[in-house]
Amino acid sequence: MNVKSIRRFAFAIGLATLAATAANATTTLHAQRLTPPEGYASSFGRQNPAVLDDWIAVFGRLSDADGDGRVYIYHRLAGTWSLFQEITPPDSADGRDTLAFTADALIVGSPGAWNPHLGSNAGAVSIYALQNGQWQLEEALYSYTGIMNGADGFGSSLAVDGSTLFVGFPGYINSKGLQVGDVEAYDLANLPSSYKGQILARAPIDQSSFGSSLAAANGTLAVGADNLGLTGVGASAGAIYTFAKAYNGWSQSGMLTAPDPVAFAYFPDVLVVDGGRIVAGDAEFYSQMKGGPYGAAFSYLATSGQFSYESVLPDADSYGGDMFGTSVTSVNGLSLVGSMGKGDAGQVFAFHHEASGGSQPAGVFSVADLQAGDGFGASMATDGTTLAIGATESSRIPASPGAIYVAQYPATDRVFGECFEP
Fold first, then answer.
1. What is the pTM of this model?
2. Strand partners, 86
3. Which one, of 312, 229, 298, lies nearest residue 268 by Cα?
4. Do the bridges between strand 277-282 and strand 270-274 make them parallel or antiparallel, or are there none, so unpaired?
């Protein structure tokens, strides 16, 4: 077991202990607050950051104008995070770029970027590598399959499994003129990358937004189609398509819905694959009993290669506007779910998954010095040892562009002693 695996194991064991001792307690994370250079960005931390070892990448904007998107890269040195570099991706007006790390590269998806081959804003993916002490652009990817006019959204979602990069393209148009969406796979073992193939739903459906969200790990790929209508439910209920790695590509293994799907829930918002489990967040999930969209998260467990619904990850006191399920991450059976509208400032909920199935609340998290309307939990990412949580801070006076709160999980029995404050 390598050092990273040991740290991930300690992370999961520590939070499982919390499940048994303080499932309903609110715990204050001991975290460092990261912000962009003063006066530089807005929307900082609203998109999920990317985390890898001593690096964190965060997307923000100087303004909503074309070309004003920025990626802020932070580096940890001697236990402290500081701004290392600012990158300008090929951004579009009001774009919300996506981020991911591989072992050797930073990936930036710009779904509204100019594609010179199509002569339109069909989207692009930029690959950066650390060279001579700086993150430098190594390659720009444009859709291999997007040859039809009107296609857009290449780079709307990203997922990485080993050296394979998956790129969501919900605006892909097939030869029949239907916007069915696809996922493109690229091998990043060596740069420049090589195209590995196209991934489609077995029965593609027009305007389903297939590829709107992605997650991948250990040969499993989960693809969100948040605009898919369901018979007997209605429009935009949404679904998750699951794929397994096969000798000649990826084979669809199933399709998952919310246990009680509803129209216009746009399920799922976010996805994560954790071993043999998929966790999906849906901040727009509707509950008539509680007076409007309040959000939910669901887990799905694989048995003999087939995923099926496992459990709902509940906030028993969730009400309209809580946006529970805005962000999700999961490591070794411990899932964290962001609820950016919960309480005054937002919270993050933890759930421990039993090996035999089912889930139990494991705690509620916050950070010090939050203010009303901060939207803590708006975004989230982890590499298993470092946890980054976004807060919009949109109601602060003077105005704040947003923030990322970073907590460390040392691979020792001092996890909670060092990372949490009573």
1. 0.89
2. 72
3. 298
4. antiparallel
Question: Rounded to whole angstroms, how far apart are CA atoms 305 and 278?
Answer: 12
Contact between 167 and 216 under an 8 Å Cβ cutoff? The reply is no
Residue for token pair 């250990």 = 218
pLDDT digits (tens, 9 = 90+) for 253-298: 999 999 989 899 999 999 999 989 999 999 888 655 455 568 899 9
Calpha distance 239→237 (Å, rounded): 7
Question: Which DSSP string do the residues of 171-187 spell out, in sequence order?
Answer: T---TTS----EEEEEE
Structure tokens at 148: 């039809």
CA dist 73 and 75 (Å) reads 7
For 284-302, b/e burial (b = at least 16 CB within 10 A) is bbbbeeeeebbbbbbbbbb
DSSP 93-160: TT---EEEE-SSEEEEEETT--BTTTTB---EEEEEEEETTEEEEEEEE--SS--STT---TTSEEEE
Show the tokens assigned to 321: 């506007």
